[in-house]
C-alpha cells in the first residue's frame, strides 16, 4: 500500500492526477486507493490536494495498528473467526477513517476493485456503477461501504479468508451468459477472496489486448506491481498450512508472469505505458533500460541503495503500524522506482 502511495506521489508531482480516468486495484492497492477517496471527501483529488492534504492525512491514519485492533476484536468476539475479513472492514472504518459507500464516490475517475469469487472462480468486480462477475450477474449502483470493498479485495486465502457478501441485500440482474433467472449460491451469500488470486494486476477491468490493440481506446497505462518475487523455500512438515499457501503462491506467480509478458509486449510495442516493480533498485532499472552511463550514475547517486531497495521489498505484508522510518523508506522507494522507470526509458 505504501509503495503505491509513493507512485501516486510521483504522479502528483508530475501534475498527472487530473489525467487519470480509470484505476483498477487488488489487495494492498485497493487499501491505498480506498484511503485516497476516503481522505478526500469521496472524490479523486487534484495533484496539489493529494500532496498537501490527502497524503499527510493518510500517513497520520496509518499510525493506528489495524492488525492489533482486528485481533482484539477477534478475542472479544471469537464467534467472528470465520468472518475475519468482515472484521477488518469495521476496523478500517474506526481506525483508518474510511467512510462512505461505493455508490457515493465521484465518477470522474472510475475505480474498479477486483476480487475473486470462490463459487465461480471468476473475477468479481466492484465499481461505482455495478458489482458482480460475468457468471453470477451484476447489481447496479451497489450501496455497499467502501471499507467492505477494500477488505474483500485484500482478503488473502488462508491468512485472512473470504469476505462474505450477503447477496439478498442487492437486486441482481441475470448474467448475459444465462437464460434462466439467477439464484445466488446458497441463496444467501457468496465468498470473495483477494483479487490477486485471479489477476494480480487487476488488468481485466481496464485492459484487454486483442488483435494487436488494447480495448476502449487506452491512452497510457501505469502498472504498479507491489508483489514480492517467489523465493526458495524448504517444504514444511506434512499437512502444514504453509504448504498450501506455497502452492497458491506458485500459481499466482505463474499467472502474474503470463500477464506481465502480455502487457509488457503492449508497452514495448507502443510506448504507451510503464511497469513499476517493487524491489527494483535504481541500478537495476538503469541497467535493464540500457540508458546512458550519465543517467545511470545520476540516478544511482540520487536514490536509495540496492540494499535499501531489498529491505523495502522484504518488508512484511501485514496490517501492523509501520514505523516512521519504514513508512518513509517504502514511500520513497515507490516514488523512486516510478521516477527511475520513466526517466530511464525516456532519457529525461
Q: How would you portray this structure in words?
A:
It is a single chain. The chain is globular. The two termini are about 25 Å apart. It is built from eleven helices and eleven strands. The relative contact order is 0.13. By secondary structure, it is of the alpha+beta class. It has helices spanning about 1-15, 25-40, 45-60, 65-75, 85-95, 145-155, 240-270, 280-290, 295-300, 305-315, 325-345, and strands at about 20-25, 110-115, 125, 130-135, 135-140, 165, 190-195, 210, 215, 220-225, 275. Strands 1, 2, 3, 4, 5, 6 and 7 form a seven-stranded mixed beta sheet that branches. A two-stranded antiparallel sheet has the order 8-9. Strands 10-11 form a two-stranded parallel sheet. Helices cover about 45% and strands about 15% of the residues. Strand 8 and strand 9 (about 215) form a beta hairpin.
Report the count of strand segments.
11
Structural class based on helices, strands and sheet pairing: alpha+beta
Number of helices: 11
Unreliable stretches, pLDDT < 50, 5 or more residues? none
Q: What form results from the Cα inertia axes?
A: globular
**Overall mean confidence score, pLDDT:** 84
Radius of gyration: 20 Å
Our estimate of the beta-strand percent is 5-15%
Could you describe the largest sheet, including whether it forms a barrel? 7 strands, mixed
Helix content: 40-55%
N-end to C-end Cα span: 27 Å
Q: H/E element string?
A: HEHHHHEEEEHEEEEEHEHHHH
Amino acid at each position: 500500500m505504501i509503495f503505491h502511495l509513493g507512485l501516486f506521489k510521483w504522479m502528483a508531482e508530475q501534475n498527472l492526477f487530473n489525467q487519470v480516468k480509470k484505476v483498477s486495484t487488488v489487495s494492498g492497492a485497493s487499501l491505498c486507493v480506498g484511503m485516497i477517496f476516503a481522505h478526500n471527501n469521496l472524490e479523486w483529488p487534484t495533484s496539489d490536494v493529494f500532496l498537501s492534504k490527502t497524503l499527510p492525512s493518510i500517513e497520520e491514519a496509518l499510525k493506528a495498528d489495524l492488525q492489533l485492533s482486528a485481533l482484539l476484536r477477534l478475542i472479544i468476539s471469537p464467534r467472528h473467526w470465520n468472518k475475519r475479513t468482515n472484521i477488518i472492514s469495521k476496523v478500517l472504518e474506526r481506525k483508518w477513517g474510511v467512510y462512505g459507500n461505493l455508490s457515493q464516490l465521484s465518477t470522474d475517475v472510475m475505480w474498479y476493485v477486483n476480487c475473486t469469487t470462490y463459487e465461480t472462480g471468476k473475477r468479481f468486480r466492484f465499481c461505482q456503477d455495478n458489482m458482480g462477475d460475468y457468471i453470477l450477474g451484476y447489481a447496479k449502483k451497489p450501496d455497499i461501504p467502501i471499507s467492505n470493498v477494500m477488505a474483500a479485495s485484500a482478503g488473502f486465502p488462508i491468512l485472512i479468508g473470504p469476505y462474505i457478501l450477503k447477496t439478498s441485500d442487492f437486486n441482481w440482474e441475470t448474467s448475459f451468459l444465462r437464460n434462466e433467472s439467477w439464484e445466488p449460491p446458497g441463496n444467501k451469500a457468496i465468498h470473495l477472496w483477494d483479487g490477486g488470486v485471479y489477476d494480480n494486476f487487476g488488468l481485466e477491468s481496464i485492459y484487454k489486448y486483442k488483435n494487436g490493440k488494447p480495448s476502449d481506446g487506452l491512452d497510457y497505462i501505469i502498472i504498479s506491481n507491489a508483489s514480492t518475487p517467489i523465493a526458495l523455500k524448504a517444504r514444511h512438515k506434512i499437512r502444514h498450512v504453509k504448504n498450501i499457501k506455497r502452492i497458491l503462491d506458485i500459481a499466482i506467480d505463474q499467472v502474474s508472469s503470463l500477464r506481465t509478458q502480455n502487457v509488457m509486449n503492449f508497452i514495448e510495442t507502443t510506448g504507451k505505458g510503464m511497469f513499476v516493480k517493487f524491489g527494483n533498485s535504481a541500478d537495476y532499472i538503469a541497467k535493464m533500460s540500457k540508458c546512458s552511463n550519465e543517467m545511470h550514475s545520476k540516478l544511482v547517486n540520487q536514490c536509495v541503495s540496492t540494499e535499501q531497495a531489498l529491505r523495502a521489498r522484504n518488508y512484511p505484508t501485514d496490517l501492523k503500524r509501520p514505523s516512521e522510518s519504514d513508512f518513509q523508506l517504502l514511500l520513497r522507494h515507490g516514488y523512486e522506482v516510478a521516477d527511475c522507470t520513466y526517466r530511464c526509458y525516456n532519457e529525461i
